[in-house]
Each structure stands twice: as structure tokens, then as C-alpha cells.
């Protein structure tokens, strides 16, 4: 084995392990939800792991990422610990956002993960703003907005693409096209076959389709788009085709999806795809098993620790409205 | 005699001072660059600071305010202009759901130091979709600071505080005041957010006013003084933080209070003031708390109809007379 081959194996193993950690965390979140330990709602990203890990691998630590309510994978890919994410879902004081955000708002700002937003499409203009700011401050940072197929039909998406092109912003718009909004197939309500990529040309930027279940393909495509942004050539739309393994949210059984469709996509699980590739390029089954075991250990420990953590302190309801840390609204 | 300036020029002066002081301040909005803004409130800024500081945008209210938010989260102090406050409805998501909540729902991880400026209010015959006073829209959302100056000096002083604030500030510039004149702000003038000003001292009735209803109240004061009714006018200057201490202090003196607000009675900011007074000032009151507000109809176009709907000097004089003799 050459050094280059060894490096490639190590890199892919690392990505695989990151994906396995995300998958394990999502399964843990689902189990905890079924046990009544997670309240409210969750939108699990199991199935979308390759988009987050592949994209993250194409970014610098100081780049900016904006995600949606289906954003656990992006938080973890940008360095949020599974423990802090699960603790947030379980309303614990050790939660990533101090239990003030919840599943839909995971944020790790000190790693450039500037939030998860639950109003469809709202964060695309924000990503523009972060990219504009990078340009104004003379850095070479890039901003990435991840969003669903459903977001391509909201006004903010179209406003954001146009402004990004006009101002030539260092931003990448990444659509995670999982074929469905909540319960409606995206094709039933969209004027073009590729809801994100087909809209790029109308806004004067490239639109690229990529296999969102192939972490290597995502990393390649994102590297090109990020490089283009970083070198001042403007924005790109990347449409990653993927599929969610759970329903839309909570315990949605997703019976609106045809069985053969589900089966075909599960066979192309991003973890299976990466595993096959690993074995093809010379990793051993033992390497893969060891990565799986490490991921499982991380997730098990995270779940235990999150369950054991103290609940959020009610007094914190009155902190951090304002920058002075407080909530005073009058004299 | 101090220098006089217009409220309109005070807006560009206030912005220019902050642009000069802090290189992270940038402006964005529709027609604000070479055109100087549709109300000429950014006149001269593009010439002085250039295209890197003063950015013309497409007609994309969500993209404007959303970009301001993203820039504010990453080290800039953007000042976004929404041409007419009525258009807040087109980017309300950012003002209601995103900007005021980002800090809180991330457990304090992000800070959003931005200003959204807008031309607000009626009296110019712009009809139902370009004349509303919508400070009360912003008042419904915890997490926004709200400034609404009534004088040129306050425009400059509050702009300084708004731009320097680490919290998001919605800054209402009243269209009906753009041509009005007042003393120019001295160099380095800063008015803290959340400090009301007693615009006229008086002993008989407290009139709580904001933005264009401040000069309206002062005009009513002159008329009422002739009848021996001495009103105290409190200019709130900000709705959040709300300076109730100044209002209650004034009430202690006068025992009678009326709020004069341009927005419709339903859901108006005066209701919040009145409810605090009812809670905490009840024992000081010698008469019911009154609210002179807009009527609960859309704003009509014709002057004669608009006068029916929004507060006027005559309506305030009449309301104060009744309150004084209660
Ligand atoms: C503006 C807005 N409209 C509707 C909703 C309710 N909603 C939440 S998720 C969702 C589906 C979004 O689908 P998509 O963009 O494809 O993302 P996915 O959930 O598939 O990741 C809808 C309609 C919302 N949160 N925001
Ligand atoms: Mg979808």
C-alpha cells in the first residue's frame, strides 16, 4: 500500500466514523423520544450523514455553517458533542444551548456553526450576511446554508440566491433533497425536476447535482464550490440527493413513501456506501468494525451522561435575552 | 442661538458619525446609495463613505434584513433600511422569529448587534400601505429594542446608541417629522436607549407621547396653557426599554395621565403603558387613564379622512380638557 492509499483510507475511515457517530446519536435520540425522555419534537437526519460530513470535510474551521431544524448532523459534524446535543434534547442544563433551543436550534457558534433555524428558508439570507461580512472584513471565509428541498419554494430562497449572485458572495447553498417536504413529495409542488439546482441558472450561478449518500462525492463537489466561493468567483447551488431513514418528525411512520422506494434508498445508506468503498480501497473489515465500535462507545457514553445530567435551571429562563445577559425590558 | 437642523438631515448626520467612528458599521437598503434614499435620509453618505460602506440592494426585504443578521452575527454592525415600515410585513420573520430570538435560543452563543431603520407613520397622504405607525408590531416581540425619536438631536443621539448597542434595535423615523427643525446634536451626542425625556414640565396632566405625537402634545400644551391647564409631556423616546420610572414620577406630580399614540387603539403601545400605570400607579390616580390613539380602521388617503383616524392637536386638547376636569 502506498502512502497516498493509506492516507485515503485513514481519511475515509475518519469520515465513516463521524457518520457512524451521527447515526448512533440519531438512533439514541429516537429511542429517548420513544421512552418519553425527549419532549417536543425531533427531525432526525439519519440518512443525511454524508452531506454533513462530506461538506464539513471541505470546509475550514473558521467557515460558517447555517442549518435547519433537521440539523443534528451539521452540529455534530462541526464539533458539537453528541452528549451536548442529546442533553439539549432532554432539557438538561448541560445542553448545547442550555436547553433554551431544543432539537430544532442546535448551535455551536464557536465552531462557526451559527445555528439551526426552524422557519423554512430563513437562514439562506443570513448565510449571505455572514459571507458578506467575510468579504467586508477581508477574510477568505465561506458561508454554507444547508436546507431542504421544500425550502426552494419559499421567497427567502429566491431573494437569497439573487442577492448572493449580485454581490458575488462567498456562499454555497446546499439543498438536501430528500424528495419530501413533511409529507408531500417535492415533485408534486415544484415547477422543475431539480428544485434547487434548476433554479441556479436563473440567478446566474452554477447548480450542481451530487449523490448525497456518497460522502466522497459530496466532499469533492463541495470542495469545488467552496474553492470557487473562496477565490471570489461567487456562489454555487449544490443539490445533494438523499433520503431520510425516519419519518419527518417525532414518530411519523412515513407511510406516504412507497415501500420499494424506501427499500432502494436504504440499500444506498450512506454508511453502506462508505463501507463498500473502504473495503474496495483496501481497508479491512477489522478497520471498519473498530470504527463502528468507537462510534458506539461515544454514543453510549453520551447518552448515559446526558441522561444523568441535571435538568435546566428554571432561573435561566431570564438570562440571555439581551447582550448584558439579562431580560430587563423596563425601568 | 443653537444651530437648527432638520430631522431628515439628522438621520444622515447620525449615520455619518457612526460610519466615521467604527469601520464595522455598514449600511444596506433599497436606493440608499447614490440616490441618497427615497426620503434623502442617507444623502451624502455614499459620496463620503463609498460603495464598500453603503450598499444598494434589490427589492428583497428578507434578503436585506437576513443579510444584516448574518453580518451582525459575524463581526459587523450593519444598519439596514426598510424604506417604509409597512414593508416590515415582508420581512417580519426576521424581526419576529430570527433576530430577537437568536441570542436566547442559542443560550447566549450569538450576538446580533444590528439596527433596522425605517420610515414610519402617517400624515403625508400616502394611503393605507405606506402610512402606518407600527412600533407596536415590534413591541409584541421580546428581544427587540425600539427607538422612535421626536427631535433631530434625539435622532443623532439615539442612532449612536442603537448602532453601538449589542442588541438589535428597530429604529423608527417618523415621516411626518422629516422636514421639522430642531437644535443640532452637539459633537459626540449619545442618548441612552430607554431614557424618556420630559419635553415640557407641567403640574396638571401627564401626556405620554412618542415620535410625532410629541410635537403634537407640545402644540396642545400651548393651547391648553391659555385655558390654565398645565400639562407635562413625557417623550418616551424608546418603547423597549420602556422608561416607566419617568412616567410614574410624572404621574406622582400630576395624578392624571393620558397616552397619545398614532397606531390603532387595538394593540397599541399605550395599552402597555396604561396597564403598568394601572398596576403600579393606581393610588396616584385622580382620574381614569386615557388613551388617545388611532382609530381601528385602515389609514385612509384623503387628508380629511386621515385626520378623523389619527390623533390631532384638537383631539388631544379636548381629551385633556375632559381629563383635567374629571
Ligand atoms: C415558513 C415555514 N412554513 C412551514 C413550516 C412547517 N414545516 C416544517 S418542516 C417542513 C417541511 C420542509 O421540507 P424540506 O425543506 O424538504 O426539509 P426536510 O424536512 O425534508 O429536511 C414544513 C412545511 C415551517 N417550519 N416554516
Ligand atoms: Mg425534504
UniProtKB/TrEMBL annotation, chain B:
SUPFAM superfamilies: Thiamin diphosphate-binding fold (THDP-binding), TK C-terminal domain-like. Residues 5-180 form the Transketolase-like pyrimidine-binding domain. Its cofactor is thiamine diphosphate. Pfam families: Transket_pyr, Transketolase_C. Keywords: Oxidoreductase, Thiamine pyrophosphate. One of its GO terms (molecular function) is oxidoreductase activity. InterPro entries: THDP-binding, Transketo_C/PFOR_II, Transketolase-like_Pyr-bd, Transketolase_C. PANTHER family: PYRUVATE DEHYDROGENASE E1 COMPONENT BETA SUBUNIT (PTHR43257), PYRUVATE DEHYDROGENASE E1 COMPONENT SUBUNIT BETA (PTHR43257:SF2). This is Alpha-ketoacid dehydrogenase subunit beta.
Amino acid at each position: 500500500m502506498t502512502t497516498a492509499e493509506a492516507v485515503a483510507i485513514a481519511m475515509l475511515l475518519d469520515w465513516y466514523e463521524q457518520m457512524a457517530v451521527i447515526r448512533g446519536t440519531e438512533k439514541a435520540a429516537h429511542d429517548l423520544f420513544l421512552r418519553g425522555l425527549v419532549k417536543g419534537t425531533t427531525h432526525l437526519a439519519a440518512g443525511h450523514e454524508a452531506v454533513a460530513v462530506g461538506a464539513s470535510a471541505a470546509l475550514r474551521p473558521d467557515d460558517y455553517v447555517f442549518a435547519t431544524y433537521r440539523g443534528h448532523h451539521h452540529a455534530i459534524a462541526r464539533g458539537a458533542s453528541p452528549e451536548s446535543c442529546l442533553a439539549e434534547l432532554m432539557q438538561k442544563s448541560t445542553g448545547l444551548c442550555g436547553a433554551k433551543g431544543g432539537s430544532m436550534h442546535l448551535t455551536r457558534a464557536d465552531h462557526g456553526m451559527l445555528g439551526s433555524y426552524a422557519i423554512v428558508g430563513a437562514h439562506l439570507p443570513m448565510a449571505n450576511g455572514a459571507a458578506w461580512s467575510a468579504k467586508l472584513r477581508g477574510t477568505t471565509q465561506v458561508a454554507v446554508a444547508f436546507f431542504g428541498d421544500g425550502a426552494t419554494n419559499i421567497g427567502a430562497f429566491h431573494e437569497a440566491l439573487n442577492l448572493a449572485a449580485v454581490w458575488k458572495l462567498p456562499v454555497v447553498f446546499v439543498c438536501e433533497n430528500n424528495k419530501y417536504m413533511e409529507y408531500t413529495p417535492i415533485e408534486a409542488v415544484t415547477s422543475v425536476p431539480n428544485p434547487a439546482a434548476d433554479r441556479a441558472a436563473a440567478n446566474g450561478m452554477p447548480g450542481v447535482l451530487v449523490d448525497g449518500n456518497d460522502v466522497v462525492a459530496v466532499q469533492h463537489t463541495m470542495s469545488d464550490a467552496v474553492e470557487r466561493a473562496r477565490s471570489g468567483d461567487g456562489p454555487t447551488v449544490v443539490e445533494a440527493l438523499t433520503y431520510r431513514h425516519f419519518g419527518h418528525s417525532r414518530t411519523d411512520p412515513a407511510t406516504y413513501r412507497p415501500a420499494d422506494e424506501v427499500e432502494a434508498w436504504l440499500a444506498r445508506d450512506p454508511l453502506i456506501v462508505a463501507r463498500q468503498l473502504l473495503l474496495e480501497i483496501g481497508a479491512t473489515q477489522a478497520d471498519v468494525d473498530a470504527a463502528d465500535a468507537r462510534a458506539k462507545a461515544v454514543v453510549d457514553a453520551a447518552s448515559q451522561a446526558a441522561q444523568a445530567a441535571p435538568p435546566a435551571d428554571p432561573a435561566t429562563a431570564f438570562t440571555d435575552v439581551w447582550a448584558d445577559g439579562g431580560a430587563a425590558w423596563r425601568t | 442661538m443653537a444651530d437648527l437642523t432638520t430631522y431628515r438631515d439628522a438621520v444622515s448626520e447620525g449615520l455619518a458619525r457612526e460610519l466615521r467612528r467604527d469601520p464595522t458599521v455598514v449600511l444596506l437598503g433599497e436606493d440608499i446609495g447614490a440616490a441618497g434614499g427615497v426620503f434623502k435620509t442617507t444623502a451624502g453618505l455614499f459620496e463620503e463613505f463609498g460603495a464598500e460602506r453603503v450598499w444598494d440592494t434589490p427589492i428583497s426585504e428578507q434578503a436585506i434584513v437576513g443579510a444584516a443578521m448574518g453580518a451582525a452575527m459575524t463581526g459587523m454592525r450593519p444598519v439596514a433600511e426598510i424604506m417604509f415600515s409597512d414593508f416590515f410585513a415582508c420581512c417580519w420573520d426576521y424581526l419576529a422569529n430570527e433576530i430577537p430570538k437568536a441570542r436566547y435560543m442559542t443560550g447566549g452563543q450569538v450576538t446580533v448587534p444590528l439596527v433596522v431603520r425605517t420610515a414610519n407613520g402617517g400624515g403625508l397622504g400616502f394611503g393605507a400601505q405606506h402610512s402606518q405607525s407600527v412600533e407596536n408590531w415590534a413591541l409584541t416581540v421580546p428581544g427587540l429594542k425600539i427607538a422612535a425619536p421626536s427631535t433631530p438631536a434625539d435622532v443623532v443621539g439615539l442612532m449612536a446608541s442603537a448602532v453601538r448597542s449589542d442588541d438589535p434595535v428597530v429604529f423608527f423615523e417618523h415621516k411626518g417629522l422629516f422636514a421639522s427643525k430642531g437644535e443640532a446634536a452637539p459633537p459626540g451626542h449619545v442618548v441612552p436607549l430607554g431614557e424618556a425625556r420630559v419635553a415640557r414640565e407641567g403640574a396638571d396632566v401627564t401626556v405620554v407621547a412618542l415620535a410625532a405625537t410629541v410635537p403634537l402634545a407640545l402644540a396642545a400644551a400651548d393651547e391648553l396653557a391659555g385655558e390654565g391647564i398645565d400639562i407635562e409631556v413625557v417623550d418616551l423616546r424608546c418603547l423597549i426599554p420602556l422608561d416607566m420610572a419617568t412616567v410614574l414620577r410624572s404621574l406622582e406630580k400630576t395624578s392624571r395621565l393620558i397616552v397619545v399614540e398614532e397606531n390603532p387603539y387595538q394593540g397599541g403601545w399605550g395599552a402597555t403603558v396604561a396597564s403598568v400605570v394601572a398596576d403600579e400607579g393606581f393610588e396616584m390616580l385622580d382620574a381614569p387613564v386615557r388613551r388617545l390613539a388611532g382609530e381601528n380602521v385602515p389609514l385612509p388617503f384623503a387628508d380629511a379622512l386621515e385626520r378623523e383616524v389619527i390623533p390631532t392637536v384638537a383631539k388631544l386638547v379636548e381629551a385633556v380638557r375632559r381629563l383635567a376636569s374629571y
